[in-house]
Write a structure and sequence with these properties.
Elements (H helix, E strand, L loop, with lengths): L5 H47 L4
């Protein structure tokens, strides 16, 4: 027996689309933060070299 109505299917498709959109947004936010971390790490490395020389 198939008790799944077309309304149920449409609702599930809508929820799936919402979850996929949220996933894309979160992945983009994660990528932004990873880029920021890389940038800050490069700045930190530069400052360390300036203060302590190249052998630190």
């Amino acid at each position: 027996m198939n008790n799944t109505s077309s309304d149920d299917i449409l609702q599930l498709k809508q929820r799936l689309a919402e979850q996929e959109a949220l996933n894309r947004a979160l992945l983009e936010k994660l990528a932004d933060r990873e880029r920021e971390i890389d940038h800050l790490q490069a700045q930190l490395d530069k400052l360390r070299r300036m203060n302590f020389g190249g052998r630190s």
